[in-house]
Design brief:
352 residues, five-stranded parallel beta sheet, three-stranded parallel beta sheet, 12 strands, globular
Length: 352
């Protein structure tokens, strides 16, 4: 059975029988976990093991584990600094910042792999332009080349730990003022401005083999009338065509207000037809069930299946060995120096 094109959520820390049945549906291909699914390390390991036992090839398991404001798993995990701290460090000592960024990627990936999670939706490739509160310090820097350089180091660390990198939020969410969780987001800049700024980090990381991208719900009226993740233009002409991206493309949660008109089934279908390989549909179980009922005969392209299969985590780290290793202890010390901020103002039960 191939991996299906839907990534869904779970209600709590225990996999219920009805949820296991849902995850066995051929149109489902992955699970995104939130803070509500986490109690402690032992419980999380058991949950991921149960998810992976449901079918073969095993379902993808993802989480938003960026650091700073966006870190779903906390107790038993390293408290990570927001991305902007690496950018500030870069302004003072670029080489040290590169080392810190790579270390953070390795630490994220290693801790997730030790509990059976395949990958985090990271790194954030948006620019910190000072406009977007929902992005803000989640961005590494305001300069696109600096964002690209630090994110490349994070990607290298994730890869070393056996986890894929997912760059987000294409084509850039850092300038738009609105929050796509709550409303339709518009960015009135021209395509030339996107090319000169926001697209640069994506272009650079794609060149270095970025495995996956998450598309935003940002609408750029001067470029296209649809939210980017539901736009054939942004998918085919820009991401796949102009930038030559050959990895997996995720939508942001189609249940967000920013996804535009229609209910979850209509939005999901629009995202798939636009070019998404996997669509996130969260916090709307009736909507997910309607998608399965209305589009349950959806046929996944073999090329898409191959893209998604490459996102499975490599290796299963033994957690006790990881925690006892000199490399891990050193990595934790490096992150502590950057003094993470623990503000939780994004909400832990929605995709970030």
């Amino acid at each position: 059975m191939a991996l299906g094109p839907l990534m869904v959520d779970l209600d709590g820390p225990v996999l219920e029988p009805a949820e296991a049945e849902l995850l066995a549906h051929p149109m489902v291909g992955g699970v995104i976990l939130f803070a509500r699914n986490f109690v402690d390390v032992a419980q999380l390991s058991q949950l991921t093991s149960q998810i992976h036992e449901i079918r073969q090839p095993r379902l993808l398991i993802a989480v938003d584990q960026e650091g700073g404001r966006v870190q779903r798993f906390r107790e038993g995990f390293t408290q990570l600094p927001p991305a902007r701290r690496f950018g500030a460090q870069y302004d003072e000592d670029p080489e040290l910042a590169r080392i810190s960024a790579e270390t953070s990627g390795w630490l994220i990936g290693s801790e997730l792999r030790s509990v059976g999670v395949d990958f985090s939706f990271a790194p954030v490739l948006d620019l910190d332009t000072g406009h977007s509160k929902v992005i803000g310090d989640r961005a590494y820097h305001s300069a696109p080349e600096t964002v690209a350089e630090l994110a490349r180091c994070v990607m290298r660390g994730l890869r070393d730990a056996g986890a894929a990198a997912v760059g987000k939020h294409f084509p850039g969410h850092g300038t738009a003022i609105e929050d796509s969780h709550l409303q339709v987001v518009q960015d009135h800049r021209s395509m030339a401005e996107f090319r000169l700024n926001d697209l640069i980090p994506f272009e650079r990381l794609i060149h270095f083999g970025l495995p996956a991208v998450m598309l935003s719900h940002v609408v750029a009226p001067q470029v296209d009338s649809h939210p980017a993740g539901l736009s054939p233009y942004w998918h085919s002409e820009v991401l796949r065509g102009e930038l030559g991206f050959s990895g997996a493309a995720f939508s942001d949660d189609v249940n967000m207000a920013g996804a535009g008109s229609g209910r979850t089934p209509e939005r999901a279908l629009r995202a798939l037809r636009a070019g998404c390989d996997m669509v996130l549909a969260c916090n709307d179980r009736p909507g997910v069930e309607a998608v399965l009922e209305q589009h349950g005969d959806w046929k996944t392209d073999p090329v898409v299946s191959a893209r998604l299969m490459r996102l499975h985590g490599r290796g299963q780290l033994d957690r006790l060995q990881l925690l006892g290793s000199a490399r891990y202890r050193s990595a934790v010390e490096q992150m502590a120096v950057l003094e993470p901020e623990l503000a939780l103002d994004l909400g832990d039960d929605v995709p970030a």
